[in-house]
Design goal:
2 copies of one chain form a homodimer. In chain A, helix 1 crosses helix 3 and helix 1 packs across helix 5. Chain A has 26 helices and 23 strands. A 6-stranded parallel sheet of chain A has the order 12-9-13-14-16-15, sandwiched between helices. Chain A has a 6-stranded mixed sheet with strand order 22-21-19-20-18-23, sandwiched between helices. A 5-stranded parallel sheet of chain A has the order 1-2-3-5-4, sandwiched between helices. With 813 residues, chain A is an alpha/beta fold. Helix content of chain A is 36%, strand content 13%. The longest helix of chain A is centred in the N-terminal third of the chain and has 27 residues. In chain A, strand 13, helix 15 and strand 14 form a beta-alpha-beta unit. At the A-B interface, helix 7, helix 9, helix 14, helix 15 and helix 21 of A face helix 7, helix 9, helix 14, helix 15 and helix 21 of B.
């Protein structure tokens, strides 16, 4: 631990006023938790002034208020551009109190004015039906981190600081939150922050000692271990501790000056062109009592400085009139008459302490990132198209083609500094390596001569922590920039709960007029279930889509482009979209290409369509609809069509491909959903449908159970069978291979009854041959590996690649 | 960093033999990755001896082999009971090689004998169709951690060590895995391990420097920071580093002796009754090259000691005949002729180095925990029943009643030391506080006088890290003990991916005869979506059930007991079950109680049933079926029935309650599923069904879309609407309240057409009254708060509480 600079001095007068400001914020916080009326305590406090249901979290609140007033002083003294990331989301009362004191709240919500009526409304609305949540929610100006689910504050703060060289993201981390895995990993984000280019993060670890009902680990560790831990994480920790405000105030002020000095020194050095080594950024460990300034004890039980302060220290006021007196004493201990004038406005000498305009942390535009968002300069994605003279005529690695496009997205926006790529050590594995032609992975530790694609100014963010990647990209997007997250499909479940919280945040923002739209959170999920035959069962899980579609339809989109050109069109689309979570699932292995760019664009615009060139029902009712979604299911469907057409030339097959999964839902459920009329036209109302789907088959039923022809829908997909095997064996184990699909058709088309036995035997034989072959050769049969789509000459296909969907439908709005 | 004890000496002869053993393991590892035939290289290596598809991860393997031979020496020298948790799961070849060398593999899999034929079979099966996975999978004897998804090795190791005082769980952690959040949090597990009662965990952090394509953070940090980090975590780290085996061997041997000495000293002190303070357990940081002993460079590119060694260093052997020569040289560099006899068996002087019998890490029974599993001594759960003289006559907090039962489960098994409770700081919040009458939270840090329910020998495991809780309980169960994990419903998504991996593990174990069944992983999800009105939107998410049902039906069970007595019956059941993941969702707030214990038992046995006492269709066809699953949906359904019966006395309503959600699926899909005949009897084949479900409504459609009456099924549930509000407002926002349910019935029963307009207006008025009331009072209307079930006198109900399900069905086998 270092000593703070000794020469720093804040006048006693200023500290006194800051303490008054803190008292005001604490008063306003307690008021929010308890009071319906009598906000200034002008009359004796009675039960009817008190909320019937007491909700809120007092414990963390006074500490947050304390930090806030000190940051305000720092901002004023140095004209700082700072945001406040509030890890203890339960500290909503503190953030609301400060927002009100700074005048911001009344600007955003004029009915909560800066006077007695406004104060009463501020109190009443808190955790009250029709009011505001108890957390630092989207409704709270100045916030980008809700904090309801703990662990993400610090990665959000780093995400905000990247590419914002003049921003300081001050991040308060509760000692409860500090026990979570995502937080424990996020401390290492300092290895990825470049002081020449990025802003600063100032972590304040708030040790108030207790969780809901337990001490915290970090607060009980020996101090030397605590300091070693954070020095080991690469920080320079400063302790600020005490129970007595008159001691803690000057200490906090001088330590904050010290931290700012160090931040400026680091940045100055880095920006003056000196060779960089990763600096030891300062951080603060603030140890103050839980529920500081609240009741020392209640009913004889220790309360201040203990976990009993966590939520509402005084409860059941109707049954305990004595508690009403205690509450009144508690509120009066802040001496509101010295803080607010007769009209209830904070006194001018307090208001003076708040920064002005956008310097207020509650009104910093970085916390409403849509205000700062600039469109990406996107090259024309059509220029990256794979030449597809005929369906199946060439092979390509879809995500490599996408990476080629993203390279130029990156290049075009290098000067805007507003685009980054995120992923857990998988950018190259996922075939985006072309991006390394224009930028590198960011890396602030030592770089060795043999290292490749590592640089201090890289824009590819790789850490083997999906949590940290997710937190970074969320922070980056919410502060008005763009990004893409690529991940192995199975392991994106690691951030299921973070996705939940982000989707909830976006849904809520859609209902808040002053929240400007931000860039969508874009996922590429690759190394997917069907091509993890080499990595085995633990790497095979396509369930993230199921998880995603539980969230509000208005914020989620799911795309399953079947080849490279459709992937390009979808990529361009998602980079232009706002306020969504876009999930794209696409393979990285060399696969057959089906659509030229024109056809791909039309197909993606429609989101779903008949592939005329693969169908032979032209102008007639088909015997069967073969639908597919996902690259491997598309391949197997087409191979099944080939098999069936050879064996049963008269069979009329309609081939349908789905890119935008949400098209399957009724349009009453999802804005992208097809109208019943359009759905029925595609799927018929009475013909059997054999649907090969990328993920768990029940999802297709879930999306389509209201459709007319649902009773005839038969879905194949992943049924949780897998191990280390071959690609084709993976589909066979799950009955979604060409032969099983063909058998499904044979079973379902009544007029094939006569051929059934013969064909089914042929299929069984083929599957047995497959088993024998791979068991002896360890790879798939040549007839599988070398299968290609044999129909149509190049000329006629050019026309036939067009999509048959009578009315142009919107591309995933 | 401490110095190793100076006086320890391993003879040069022994070190030489250990090095030979290591060479043998490395040879066998390379052989598995590459060879189909010619296992002993008796003839020149040719392309046809080599697998056509090269799969596997060489990079981490030699390090694992190195550690293994050293642990074997330690086990032999001190007769240790040790298991090996292999974090780098990709190091499968190493674990398989050692298992074969120890003879275990041939005992479990006789066709993989300890000779040339066996060696060939060992090589061939690796990552080969019909063979074994490339990871340390359930198929691998000695394993309890697959390692395919990274981050869980250390919490598994601690889980294994709890209550196993004579076990040492040696845990190798890769430096990639060390970047993950779950791992970063798990280091703090040392604050919960009691050396007097528990075994030891010896972490070996293996810094091989690189991930797939990147350096690792921990390997590139300055050494002083690295050591500070782990000292800060509370360990005593010892460095073992080098490239040259002749230097690293003696260092590793002496450091291991040092660590064992320290472990023994800690345990001796703790067990001789000295007052405990949390000790600084030793750990090893081993820094050796990635792909150690492999090709130094390939095609002019650095390979050994670099990320290019991660998977298969020499690739495309068909195209590069030169690589075949390199491979042969590499294999021969281990001098196989000095390691194996002419028949291919390892030489006796090598075999001597392996421990014998259960001392072999590959055959330690703790890694096949079912062998050690003893049943819990369960008290009769009926003794904890809530007295329910009539449905709705009393209120109770269901999870508190459960906690009362669990207290005695804990008490009855204190001497067996095989039951623990896990959860993130929520045991008291979730109303299990009765457990604290017989045990405390375990806590090895300082305990202050004001602390409550903290003790060094506590059996309640609380850390604010769902990941660590999940890892601990998995490790505890897989080594043959019992546990229960309680969690806020919304935040259990944090461990979605860990659940996935555990469910996959269990499914695979079901197919391995020698894997003995282990106790089920039991979740209580409470503080659920409908009673998080006070904590707001971020705390409202019932989607874990959807996630769970994607996994194999044979390993997952979901229960939604509607009251305390049904919760007791379900709790007893899950504690007796084996090899499942049981998810129980139940509320903790005071709620109406419906069933006395007899009725509850019958209801839970059936899993689903008509509630005769709430229905008025006796003996007749109903007009409508009102189904419900979950405590709050049950309450709202019964209140809707009350409303409808008052307004429409002639309406015939059948009330159906679902406890075991899997009953809804066809029995072809889930072993608990109802036969169609039984389903149709309950739900009718043609009457409208209004189903109030706890979670996202689509799940009910997904489970029932094949049922005859599915077209008439209308489901209400959570539709992702919520904020901080009142309990009743939560159900209103999601249209699952009594009034919406009543309106749904009115809309669907044709003969109510005449009453519809009048009743719908009454319902609208009631909902408007509700809105107004809560907006002014901040709590629910008295008519909502005080509603109770008004029908039937106590006498006749006693009979009517019986469940009408003609044939007794199995209780969730």
């Amino acid at each position: 631990m270092e000593q703070a600079k000794q020469d720093f001095f804040v006048s006693a007068e200023l500290l006194e006023r800051m303490n008054a400001y803190w008292r005001a914020a604490n008063y306003l916080s307690v008021g929010q938790i308890y009071l319906l009326d009598n906000p200034l305590l002008k009359e004796p406090l009675k039960l009817e002034h008190i909320k019937p249901r007491l909700l809120g979290h007092w414990g963390t609140t006074p500490g947050l208020n304390f930090i806030h007033v000190h940051l305000n002083r720092l901002i004023n003294a140095h004209n700082l551009n700072m945001i406040f990331i509030c890890g203890p989301g339960h500290g909503g009362p503190a953030m609301l109190a400060n927002c009100w004191l700074e005048g911001t709240y009344s600007e955003y919500y004029p009915h909560i004015s800066l006077n007695k009526e406004g104060m009463k409304a501020l109190f009443r609305q808190f955790s009250f039906p029709g009011g505001v949540p108890s957390h630092v929610a989207p409704e709270t100006p100045g916030s980008i981190n809700e904090g309801g689910e703990l662990g993400y504050a610090l990665s959000h703060a780093y995400g905000a600081a990247f590419d914002n060289p003049y921003l300081i993201a001050c991040c308060v981390i509760g000692d409860g939150e500090a026990e979570t895995g995502p937080m424990a990993a996020a401390w290492h984000s300092n290895k990825f922050l470049n002081p020449a280019r990025d802003g600063a993060v100032l972590p304040i670890l708030h040790l108030n000692g207790y969780k809901i009902a337990n001490p915290t680990i970090l607060a009980r560790m020996e101090e030397d271990e605590l300091l070693q831990l954070f020095e080991g994480y690469g920080y320079r920790p400063y302790l600020v501790e005490g129970n007595e405000p008159e001691i803690v105030h000057p200490r906090m002020a001088s330590i904050l000056e010290q931290c700012l000095d160090e931040i400026k020194a680091i940045q100055h050095k880095a920006r003056s062109g000196e060779a960089l080594i990763r600096p030891h950024w300062p951080m603060i460990i603030m140890r103050t009592p839980k529920g500081w300034t609240g009741p020392k004890s209640v009913d004889g039980k220790k309360t201040e400085g203990f976990w009993r302060s966590h939520q509402v220290p005084l409860e059941k006021l109707a049954e305990n009139p004595d508690h009403i007196n205690l509450l009144e004493q508690w509120l009066k201990s802040y001496r509101p008459e010295e803080l607010f004038d007769a009209q209830g406005a904070p006194l001018p000498e307090l208001l003076e302490l708040a920064p002005k305009g956008h310097l207020r942390m509650s009104d910093n535009p970085h916390a409403n990132g849509g205000l700062l968002l600039r469109d990406l300069r996107l090259p024309d994605f059509r220029n990256y198209a794979v030449e597809v003279p005929a369906p199946g005529a060439v092979e390509a690695e879809a995500t490599r083609v996408m990476g080629n496009f993203l390279r130029d997205v990156m290049k075009n926006n290098l000067d805007q500094q507003n685009f980054r790529i995120f992923g857990p050590d998988e950018t190259a594995s996922n075939r985006w390596s072309d991006i390394f032609e224009v930028t590198s992975r960011v890396w602030m530790e030592k770089i060795l001569p043999e290292d490749t694609n590592l640089a201090q100014d890289g824009r590819v963010m790789e850490i083997l922590s999906e949590h940290t990647c997710q937190g970074w990209i969320e922070g980056y997007l919410l502060t008005g920039r763009h990004g893409f997250f690529s991940c192995y499909e199975a392991f994106i479940h690691i951030v299921d709960s973070m996705f939940n919280q982000h989707a909830k945040w976006l849904k809520t923002c859609n209902r808040i007029p002053w929240r400007r739209p931000v860039a969508s959170l874009n996922y590429l999920l690759t190394s997917h279930v069907w091509r993890q035959d080499h990595n085995g069962f633990s790497h095979q899980d396509p369930g993230f889509i199921d998880h995603v579609v539980n969230k509000k339809a208005e914020v989620i989109r799911v795309f399953l482009p079947p080849d490279a050109n459709t992937l390009l069109a979808v990529t361009d689309h998602v980079l232009r979209s706002r306020n969504y979570v876009n999930v794209i699932v696409a393979g990285k292995q060399p696969e057959h290409q089906w659509l030229n760019m024109d056809a791909a664009m039309k197909h993606c615009e429609a989101g779903i369509g008949v592939w005329e060139w693969a169908s032979n029902d032209r102008g007639e009712e088909p015997d069967v609809v073969m639908a597919c979604a996902g690259d491997v299911p598309t391949l197997e469907t087409l191979a099944a069509v080939d098999f069936l057409r050879r064996q049963l030339p008269d069979l009329k097959i309609r081939v349908l491909n789905v890119v935008n999964l949400m098209k399957l839902q009724p349009n009453s459920e999802h804005p992208n959903g097809l109208k019943d009329r359009d759905f029925d036209e595609l799927f018929t109302t009475d013909k059997p449908i054999v649907f090969a789907y990328h993920g768990y088959p029940t999802l297709i039923h879930r999306l389509t159970y209201r459709r007319a022809n649902h009773a005839n829908l038969h879905v194949r997909g992943y049924k949780e069978e897998g191990t280390t095997s071959t690609p084709f064996d993976m589909v066979v184990m799950n009955d979604i291979d060409r032969y099983h699909l063909a058998a499904d058709v044979i079973d379902r088309v009544p007029r094939l009854k006569n051929n059934a036995a013969y064909l089914k035997q042929m299929i069984r034989d083929k599957l047995i041959d497959h088993k024998h072959y791979i068991a002896s050769h360890g790879e798939d049969m040549p007839e599988i590996q070398n299968w290609h789509w044999p129909y149509e000459a190049a000329e006629e296909v050019k026309k036939a690649q067009a999509i048959d969907i009578s009315e142009a439908m919107e591309f995933g709005e």
